[in-house]
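User: Is it possible to get a 3D structure for a protein together with its bound compound? The compound here is zinc ion. I've pasted both below.
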Amino acid sequence: MPELPEVETTVRDLRPHLIGRTIQRARVTWERTVAQPNAKQFMRAIVGYKIIGINRRGKYLVFELERPQTTDHRRRTTDDGRNLRESAAAYQITNQKHVPNEREGSQIKNHKFLLVHLRMTGQFGFHEPRVKRDKHQHVHLLLDDGRELRFHDFRKFGRWWLVDNPAQVVGKLGPEPLEMSKREFLKRLRARRGHIKPLLLNQTFVAGVGNIYADESLWYAKIHPLRDATTLTDKEASDLYNAIRRVFRKAIGVGGTSFDATYKRINGQSGEFQEDLRVVGRAGEPCHRCGTPIVKTVVGQRGTYYCPMCQRV
Ligand SMILES: [Zn+2]
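Assistant: Yes, that's possible. Here is the predicted structure of the complex:
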């Protein structure tokens, strides 16, 4: 099940294939995959857009799309001063990192954002359009290089959104663990209560941590998954902050974790972080630190691995 490192790897793998490509046709063969707008509207609305950026927010892929206004004859071009100002205002709302200057203002384009959450089994692949679609491929985008980008999703929980502003989908997410300061992490932690593992999985607390990396981080920080967040010392909280970042950096470096066949890279390769897992999938095997057999239990309905010696309640 893809978490932050797998989504980050997917983003990096997709960029060289998709940046600069224009979407020429869209087909949705499982309507519920598209959460917003409805599938019919989506198939019409996305055609003609060029992909100009691919980024990640938490476990979401964020594609930035641009359509030259000159190709849309129903709209007034930016020669119309009033229309230009309105476009500029909309642009600033949707893309706050980049506010157009006066020169760029004359070239303001029509922007949209495509957000994709892979959930349990979502995967992207490139295919020749004439290759028969398989029944687990639910969205098909024909690109201007002649290839088709297909979304394969065995469990059908993956979701796509086509929106004017990414905040409509990811606005409530907590900060990125690799971008937040230790001070900010401690401050947010001190404002919460409850068991530490479910808190780490709460995407409004920090974005991108899932089941595998929560267990791994807690093992490195020597914290039991059921510890009450309010009882963590400053030292433990600091160790946990460092552990999360260490685990994520390392996992991104090796292309993520291909643990249960739900995640493969775009080229079909597996990630390699499963080789580095310290507790996940190791029930009964000796702890790498103390030799005590790793225990598997259930916390908040999620399978949870820990060392009963290193990670005391
Ligand atoms: Zn141990």
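The longest helix spans residues 234-253. Residues 287, 289-290, 292, 307, 309-310 surround zinc ion (CB under 6 Å).
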